[in-house]
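DATA SHEET
Item: assembly model
Revision: 1
Owner: S.N.
Input lines:
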Amino acid sequence: MPAKPVTPRDVGVRDRLLDAADRLFYTEGVRSVGIDRVLADADAAKASLYAHFGCKDELVAAYVQRRVEAARSTIDRFVRDVPPRARALRFFDWVVEWAESADFRGCPLQHVVAELSDEKHPARLIAARQREWILGRLTEWARAAEVSHPNRVAGALMVLFDGAIAAAEQDGPKRARDARWTAEKLLGAPRR
Amino acid sequence: MPAKPVTPRDVGVRDRLLDAADRLFYTEGVRSVGIDRVLADADAAKASLYAHFGCKDELVAAYVQRRVEAARSTIDRFVRDVPPRARALRFFDWVVEWAESADFRGCPLQHVVAELSDEKHPARLIAARQREWILGRLTEWARAAEVSHPNRVAGALMVLFDGAIAAAEQDGPKRARDARWTAEKLLGAPRR
DNA sequence: GTGCATACAGACAGGTCTGTCTATCTCTCG
DNA sequence: CGAGAGATAGACAGACCTGTCTGTATGCAC
């Protein structure tokens, strides 16, 4: 039962804490998981956590921040090897892959927003910035695809992205494929 | 700032409790809000809550159940006065209206799913059934619209619905309009 | 009026959670 | 060797939360 020492003990306590927080917060939620669970999973002392992060909210923010950074670099790497005009659809290939991956459990950012009702929570501010970043990329790719209303299409792709993740969490990865199929319609044949 | 007695005291304590639970759970989350908050807002006694609902989880389930029933009748009433082939798009008109309403704060079911990591929680079972109901309606309407791949279109509409609500919660109601616009494209120009 | 169902009021127990603090250990650098 | 940085271990305070229990008040049926 006890999912124990996944991160070896010589990696530095900060990374160990972040790894444990990531595992537990993502699979069970930031409010369901208490500090003590993170400490046990990281095999770390409480003082270490508070020395490195100050409070639980900052640990949550650091968890979200690391997720955001990983997502940005993953996405940019994923679309890099196709021409700009194909990148929007390629992005949805990544979404499908993510939704199909074994440990997929929905969007950590959507979860954090739902769990933390305070809009000023540091983790929520990070999540809000990430939405802007994604919308920026989608807009850029929609323009490159030469669709007739790039801003509207970018907004629609944003909806498809959010919907793909939220729906795939409940109904399985086929919803991500439905989203990709829809994106293809938005981007594809209509040259006008 | 204490939002006090919104429901008059002669409506029956069960309804008062449900009204208070609905307000607080929807705006702040089912885990953020404790029993005592609900009791104070409902102007009720703790014994009444436990006599009527047994435990907090069942109160949460009753809250979700009431939301679900209200949504079903609202949706069916909303699409009733257009022909079947126009109902899918009409459904997204309702989504737009909901996202534009003043107290819109996202989908209560998505929030409950994010907040309660236990898939067997009674509230989550109710939420899961509601998804099936919605998908059923969308499939029915997609068929009536005579699209070429009704199941696929229904799945895509489900994604658009989830995405509209999730994205509108963050970005405002324009995302719901983006979703409607996309649905229009999926359902084809010939309509009305 | 008596009895009963329903509701209010609130104390209380038991648990959990965050955050602080003290004490100890270990490793590295000088 | 010795000092200090960084870590562990865990007790503890204070807050909060769920659920139980006792006692009291109100209103209705008979």
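QC remark: Residues 1-5 of chain B have pLDDT under 50 and may be disordered.
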